[in-house]
Amino acid sequence: MLIAAAGAHNLLFSGPPGTGKTLLASRLPGLLPPLAECEALEVAAIQSVASCVPLSHWPQRPFRQPHHSASGPALVGGGSKPQPGEITLAHHGVLFLDELPEFDRKVLEVLREPLESGHIVVSRARDRVRFPARFQLVAAMNPCPCGYLGEASGRCSCTPDMVQRYRNKLSGPLLDRIDLHLTVAREATALSPKSESGADTATVAEQVAEARERQQKRQGCANAFLDLPGLRRHCKLSTTDETWLETACERLTLSLRAAHRLLKVARTLADLEQADRISREHLAEALQYRPATP
Fold first, then answer.
1. Beta-strand pair 136-141/11-14
2. Fewer CB within 10 A of the terminal residue: the chain, N end or C end?
3. CA angle, corner 142, sides to 136 and 147, nearest 5?
4. What does pTM read for this prediction?
């Protein structure tokens, strides 16, 4: 969560039901820095065009959570008179898709372009409108249709074919655009758990704010939104580390896009440690959040 918030990286939670995936996602806006003045004006303009109620926690970033039955136009915008969709309403904020494989595959595929470009173009017979859509995608899914694959209790009744069909609902290009893939494990049931020492929300939010400020001063945007020239300029590696990363990507059969996104995550890890250069340790940790292509 800290890494995702610090670099605005897309995040996918995978785990059994009741492990806190939705709760974690709903807490993400509280870790993000407040909207800057120019961002707040953009969000207010979008809210006005969409005739939405203004944000109740202004200037907290938007958090949108459409139901998995949402259609393509509801997600990207449309209508006879084009109106903003959920991805535009999440501009400068978070778009949370719970039960990701339950969304229609065609609906999910429309996310691929705005995740790269930061905008969406809606074309109709009389109108052609360009809506902003620079959002952070957070998604959650179960490991199988019943949700209990891999549990020691053995209550999962899904066959390998059922599991494969369930996971095939998500295309490779879409998963390639998600920077962090995290498995949320089931914990022992405790209605009154003992408090554990760790950073609270305020402390983590302060770390996120410091990392974001560092990124703004260096490149003018969050690490996740770096373009290719910015990536080459601000994510330079030593010759040995570059060779090591290329070998790792070949062994894991990662695409060039995945390698670029891995570099952005490593840059965020370096920013959290206030390091000027990306080290081998940052690359190795970033690799752990990226699954190998089967």
1. parallel
2. C
3. 165
4. 0.90
**What is the chain written as a DSSP string?**
-HHHHHHT--EEEE--TTSSHHHHHHHGGGTSPPPPHHHHHHHHHHHHHTTPPPPTTTTSPPEE---TT--HHHHHEETTTTEE-HHHHTTTSEEEESSGGGS-HHHHHTTHHHHHHSEEEEE-SS-EEEEE---EEEEEE-SSSSS-TT-TT------HHHHHHHHTTS-HHHHHT-SEEEE-------SSPPP-----HHHHHHHHHHHHHHHHHHHSS-GGG--HHHHHHHS---HHHHHHHHHHHHHTT--HHHHHHHHHHHHHHHHHTT-SS--HHHHHHHHHTSPPP-
Give Cβ neighbours of residue 261 (< 8 Å, ≥ 6 apart).
9, 176, 177, 179, 224, 290
Task: Pick the closest to residue 138 from 3, 244, 40 (CA basis).
Answer: 3
In this structure, are residues 19 and 188 in contact, taking their beta carbons and an 8 Å threshold?
no
- Taking only the tens place, the pLDDT of each residue in 222-267 is 999 999 999 999 999 999 999 999 999 999 999 999 999 999 999 9
Q: What are phi and psi of 13, to 5 degrees?
A: -95, 135
**Span 119-131, pLDDT tens digits:** 998 887 777 888 9
Residue 150 backbone class (left: φ over 0; alpha: ψ -120 to 50; beta: rest): left
Which of 91, 106, 74 minimizes the C-alpha distance to 137? 91
49 token code pair: 């065009």
CA atoms within 13 A of residue 277's CA, in its CB half-sphere = 8
Amino acid at 2: L
